[in-house]
Amino acid sequence: MPADLGEKTDRYERLLAEALDVAEPAAGAGTPLYAGARECLDMAEAYLDDGRHFRADDDPVNALACFAYGHGWLDAGARVGLLDVPRAGDLFTI
Fold first, then answer.
1. pTM given for the model
2. Are 7 and 64 contacting, i.e. CB atoms less than 8 angstroms apart?
3. For residue 32, what are the domain limits?
4. 94 located within any domain
5. Pairing with 5, which of 14, 40, 48, 57 sits 20 to 30 Å away (CA)?
6. Which tens digit of pLDDT belongs to each residue from 34-53?
7. pLDDT in tens, 57-79
8. With 80 as the cut, is the pLDDT of residue 2 above it?
9. 92 within some domain
10. CA–CA distance from 47 to each of 14, 20, 32, 61 (Å)?
């Protein structure tokens, strides 16, 4: 049975928003690693905003893509050590 687009878009938006709430730079401000962490967080926030814009325009396919890309930035940042994230739960794949 195929996934429902609306349900999946809702779930990915929630997942990205929750992940953004808990992800933090792993290094101190002013360091190159901090700058990389901020870039990951900023890109994820931009994709969340873009996804919400697409949803408002009744474009769930592009909204879902934005939410998934945004979460990918956070997962990548966590995996390479730029971001501190919770290891328990289902917000991250590390």
1. 0.91
2. no
3. 5-84
4. no
5. 40
6. 999 999 999 999 999 999 99
7. 999 999 999 999 999 999 999 99
8. no
9. no
10. 13, 11, 23, 13
Q: Which residue has the tokens 């990389």?
A: 36
In a domain, residue 91? The reply is no
Domain count, the chain: 1
CATH of the domain at 22: 1.20.1270.90
Binned at pLDDT 50, 70 and 90, residue 90 comes out as confident
Nearest Cα to Cα of residue 25 among 37, 43, 40: 37
Q: Do 59 and 4 meet the contact criterion of CB atoms below 8 Å apart?
A: no
3-state secondary structure 37-90: HHHHHHHHHHHHHHHHHHHHCCCHHHHHHHHHHHHHHHHHHHHCCCEECCCCCC
Given a cut of 90, whether residue 94 has pLDDT beyond it is no
